[in-house]
Amino acid sequence: MLDAVLPSLDELSTWMPWARQSYGRRDALLFLRDSLAAWAEGRAYDFSIRYQAQQDRHLGNVSVWYTSRQSRVGEIGYWVRTDEAGNGIATEAAAHMLDIAFNELDMHRVTLRIASGNIGSERVAEKLGFEREGLLREELEVGGVWLDHSIWGLLDHEYRSRRLSYVEAGFLEA
Predict the structure, then answer these.
(1) pTM for the complete prediction?
(2) Number of domains comprising the chain
């Protein structure tokens, strides 16, 4: 993971509060520890993104978690190393998380929060058929700057009607 984060810090630090220039081995180990605890407690499910033929190359991470169990609402988050950005990796990873969210976790609604100006992430949302629903003003502080985030949503029935198009686009297998 560290090998993916470090050369990508300039890009990641624009959007992610955890991606500080001082990011190091200890930060990666803390993330892994927290991720394992969250998984065990059923709070969040973090996955490493890797090529099947190149399992030792970390491409990024993708996660899904509940924001409201009672309302069956969740959120997906992802990042991809800079030298692999633009290759459809985040879209494919997010499509797999939608499968988990709707089929395994029984979510009714999944959201994405995307920092204003993060065109790549907006493209992921558009390709997967998310609807842009609004703007969260100064929602998250990253590197001392408050960022607005657009909120995107996808409902269970919308996912089910679009899933075949994900397969046809190569994001999922049938």
Answers:
(1) 0.94
(2) 1
Q: Does 174 fall in a domain? A: no
Q: What span, in angstroms and rounded, lies between the C-alpha atoms of 53 and 138?
A: 41
Count CB neighbours of 4 within 10 A: 23
- Domain range for residue 146? 2-169
**CATH number of the structural domain spanning residue 41:** 3.40.630.30
For the range 115-122, what are the long-range contacts, defined as Cβ-Cβ under 8 Å and sequence gap of 24 or more?
A: 115/14, 115/15, 115/140, 115/142, 115/147, 115/148, 115/149, 116/147, 116/148, 116/149, 116/150, 118/14, 118/15, 120/85, 120/86, 120/90, 121/15, 121/78, 121/90, 122/150
Structural domain contains residue 101: yes
pLDDT digits (tens, 9 = 90+) for 133-147: 999 999 999 999 999
